[in-house]
Amino acid sequence: MHIEQLRIYEIDYLYQVSSVEVGQHSYWQIGDFQVHAQVLVTSWVVIALLLALPIVATRNLQVIPTGSQNFIEYVLEFIRDLTRTQMGEEEYRPRVPFIGTMFPSIFASNRSGAPFPRRMVQLPHGELAAPTNDINTTVAPALLTSVAHSYAGLRKRGFSYFGKYIQPTPVLLPINILEDSTKPPSLSFRLFGNILADELVVAVPVSLVPLIVPVPTMPLGLFTSAIQALIFATLAAAHIGESTEGHH
């Protein structure tokens, strides 16, 4: 009898462990749709900050930049050099605004879930989370990149752009189509997986020591956010650059 009770206790314990969720999620019900509240809240904050920062930094432009103007110009120069490296001197200028939107928005989204030690800022029924740890968020810039890729190719070469799918032989048509169709999922899942993993790695020790563990992990999260934003922007620029290259 004692052994049977022990087994029941073990099974019940394992069931409780398996049902534990990492993080708390808050949802809004809008009509027939269930909306992820954390994604909307943090996304709105990110958009507001990205709009406010350049406005504030460029209110009083100086010939010799200082302070926030210097920071904005440094970021723009970095994005311009990144785009030029991936697309070449002739094609990079029209694409700078697109890549210049992708990089800061993804970086800010990556980091927006934990501007303070985790669990210090919470929603009524959940806690703040990075928008990019939701697959719906990462799919959006990936699809935009795919659209920008096709638009750049059509604008550069017209309908001859579609000739790339039968190069170097028409036999490779299905493979070339499959290659292009897998790039958006690859971009979105790479970003989503890395940001989700970053938060999961911190979640378990934080649940044990919530006020101590987050502080030393914040620089690591900042590094991860920057690297993932850089990788996405670099791959997006390279992907768009491919569409404007001629086939020999």
Automatic annotation (TrEMBL):
Principal location: membrane
Top-level division of the source organism's lineage: Eukaryota
Subunit note: F-type ATPases have 2 components, CF(1) - the catalytic core - and CF(0) - the membrane proton channel. CF(1) has five subunits: alpha(3), beta(3), gamma(1), delta(1), epsilon(1). CF(0) has four main subunits: a, b, b' and c.
The protein's name in its UniProt record: ATP synthase subunit a, chloroplastic
Membrane topology term: Multi-pass membrane protein
Xref: CDD domains: ATP-synt_Fo_a_6
Subcellular location field: Membrane; Plastid, Chloroplast thylakoid membrane
Species this protein is from: Cyclosorus interruptus
Keyword Plastid part of the UniProt annotation: yes
Family note: Belongs to the ATPase A chain family.
PANTHER family: ATP SYNTHASE SUBUNIT A, CHLOROPLASTIC
Transmembrane residue ranges: 35-56
Organism placement in taxonomy: Eukaryota, Viridiplantae, Streptophyta, Embryophyta, Tracheophyta
Role according to the record: Key component of the proton channel; it plays a direct role in the translocation of protons across the membrane.
UniProt xrefs under Gene3D superfamilies: ATP synthase, F0 complex, subunit A (1.20.120.220)
